[in-house]
Amino acid sequence: MELRSNNIERLAGGSFDALIVGGGINGAVSAAVLAGRGLNVAIVDRGDWAGFTSSASSNLAWGGFKYLENYELNLVRKLSMSRNRLLRAYPSNITQLGFLAALDHSSPFPPWLAALGSSAYWAIGNFQTHRPQILGPEEIKSEEPVIDIENVRGGIEYYDAYLRDNDSRFVFNFVRSALEAGAVAANYVEVTSTTRSGSGWEVTLRDLEHDRELQLDAKAIVNCGGPFADALNENLDTDTEHRIVYSKGIHLVVPQLTKNERVLAFFDDTQRLFYVIPMGRRSVIGTTDTRVDTPFTEVTDEDRTFLLDQINSRLDLDAPLTTDDIIAERCGVRPLVVKNDGDDRKDIDWTTLSRKHEIETDHTQRTVTVFGGKITDCLNVGEEVAEAMEQLGFVLQPDNEDWFGEPSDEVRVDFMRQAKRMKLDDLRHKKGVEPLSERLWRRYGRRAFAMLDEIREDPTMGEDIMHSADYLRVELHHAARSEMITKLEDFMLRRSKIDLVVRTDKVRESDGLREVAEILFGDDADAKLAAYLDTGAPQLA
Predict the structure, then answer these.
(1) How many structural domains comprise the chain?
(2) Distance between CA atoms of residues 410 and 429, nearest Å
(3) What interhelical angle do 436-444 and 448-457 show, nearest 10?
(4) What pLDDT shows up at residue 342?
(5) Strand, helix or coil for residue 134
(6) How far is residue 115 CA from its own chain's centroid?
(7) Cα radius of gyration rounded to whole Å, the chain
(8) How far apart are CA 312 and CA 303, in angstroms?
(9) Per-residue pLDDT tens for 301-328?
(10) Contact in structure between 335 and 381 (CB atoms under 8 Å)
(11) Burial classification of residue 259, based on how many CB atoms lie within 10 Å of its CB (0-12 exposed, 13-18 middle, 19 or more buried)
(12) pLDDT at res. 541
């Protein structure tokens, strides 16, 4: 909590080049690039970092294969290049993953046409992934025995990429990069009013954790409100050519359905794609695509029934999945970009709206607005926000691209050498779980060196706090110091994914839950733990 408190103090009365409003993926990358290129930046979010849309993704970094159907070749090319760039920049965190699509007689495309599309997709992506292949029904059954091939005509396997950890943690790493470059950042801080001044904006905020009012000056405001971007622009008196509409998507987390680390893809009965996505020792079924009129959504009984019926009819399981098998749920809205021309888009096929982004600059109001976007395209968003700030007259340092990416191979080799010397991977042996050295490096990069030191000094720091959660005591101490955890939910659902992979009753019964709260919050542990348990150990992102 000390890190957040220090940043709150720096916000109060501060004067900044840019105030970024919204701490999802768009806001996080904007803060990282602008601070990394020399601007004096503040970023706030009225909830937790990645606490809304950016914590409800499919954890995929992909080029948008399905957009080929609508001939959006430029978008597919751009997203594929972004995916390739993320693969190079984050080799431990983002890895290639096969997508095996089983096509039955109700699928909109025959296998040969899907194979042709996958080859085009591979070429559009500069052949940077493994080569796609066409598969017959028996080959599909051999590769994935869990698939029921009774009605399958054939299929394809092509390749994209996914985040090995959760999306929220990936977003927070950009916030960390911004902090390290000198930015001021605080979660649970709400913008309550804005007043245009001669040189920029006078902004009033409220620290929601301590019910304290703050004021600051900013020469420009960057609107990264995601689903709430339009509402913020209305308050800023900013007119734009685009606006946001909402599509609800849900995911159900269930016990692992296949031990193969690949995505299984199917067309549902409405001819929309849905997937079985790996999440460690769990599988994630989703997503749906439902038009809604509000960003505030929840998983309904109808949603659950639909997805379970779809997957049960396509997999050869020992027993059909039921609601009792659901470990956790994710629900969020995609902020989709449309022209701000009064058309409510109710007469179009909802699935034809892509995940493109648009960035608009209002020179008079000195605002920049990011509409839409997704994790795959995040580096492009950051760079385009930097260009927009230059259009407003800010002078940025040259972009040497040190605001994103993992440390160099040399640093990783040094870490692995130290971890091997101290026999870190011998501290525990769990079947199907990656070695401790790999996990700490992937999650923390350079900051993992300090963890090795703490484990050497105190071996209890290398013990698991909650047996089934795969988090060491040292990670909790690190999180308490440097990850701005304000509520227990922040850690359980976003900095980690414990609430996504461990059943609520197991979390509640864990002997380590109280120690987690004590490490994170000290004297406030009882109150924070009670608040967390009162919400039912929340599992909706």
Answers:
(1) 3
(2) 27
(3) 130
(4) 63
(5) strand
(6) 30
(7) 23
(8) 14
(9) 999 999 999 999 999 999 999 999 999 9
(10) no
(11) exposed
(12) 35
Which pLDDT value is given to residue 540?
Answer: 40
CA max distance for the chain: 70
Residues 431 and 493 in one domain: yes
Residue 311 has phi, psi (to 5 degrees) of -75, -35
Which contacts qualify for 197-205: CB closer than 8 Å, 24 or more apart? Answer: 200/366, 201/19, 201/366, 203/19, 205/11, 205/44
Please list the rounded mean pLDDT of every run of 10 residues in the chain (541 residues).
92 97 98 98 98 93 87 91 96 96 92 96 96 97 96 96 94 97 98 93 97 97 97 95 94 96 94 92 91 94 96 96 96 92 57 81 97 94 98 97 96 97 86 86 96 96 83 95 96 93 88 93 95 68 35
HEC per residue, 247-275: EEEEEEEEECCCCCCEEEEEECCCCCEEE
* Residue 424 sits in the same domain as residue 524: yes
Whichever domain contains 360, its CATH number is 3.50.50.60
Token code pair at residue 47: 């909830």
Q: Look up residue 130 and give its DSSP letter.
A: P
Q: What's residue 240's pLDDT?
A: 95
Q: In this predicted structure, what is the pLDDT of residue 469?
A: 75
Q: What angle do CA 448, 453, 456 make, to 5 degrees?
A: 125
Distance (Å) of CA 272 to CA 159, 267, 351: 19, 5, 8
pTM equals: 0.95
Collect all residues with Cβ–Cβ distance below 8 Å to 517 and sequence separation of at least 6. Answer: 488, 525, 526, 528, 529, 532
d(CA 176, CA 403): 10
In a domain, 368, yes or no: yes
Residues 6 or more apart in contact with residue 438 via CB below 8 angstroms: 92
Sort 323 into a burial class: Cβ within 10 Å, 0-12 / 13-18 / 19+. Answer: exposed
Neighbours of 239 (CB within 10 A): 12
496 within some domain = yes
Whether 173 and 230 map to the same domain: the answer is yes
Q: Where are the alpha helices (DSSP H) in 125-212?
A: 137-143, 167-180
Q: How far is CA 444 from the centre of its chain?
A: 16
Q: How many CB atoms lie within 10 A of CB 185?
A: 28
Residue 25 lies in a domain: yes
24-43 burial, b at 16+ Cβ within 10 Å, e below that, comes to: bbbbbbbbbbbbbbebbbbb
Q: Give 42-90 as a DSSP string.
A: EEEESSSTT-SGGGSS-SEE---GGGGGGT-HHHHHHHHHHHHHHHHH-
Q: Which helix (H) or strand (E) holds 498?
A: helix 498-501
Domain housing 233: 2-54+167-241+346-391
CB atoms within 10 A of CB 359: 21
In a domain, 541, yes or no: no
Residue 55: count other Cβ atoms within 10 Å of its Cβ.
25
User: pLDDT for 78-131, tens place per residue?
Assistant: 999 999 999 999 999 999 999 999 999 889 999 999 999 999 999 999 999 999
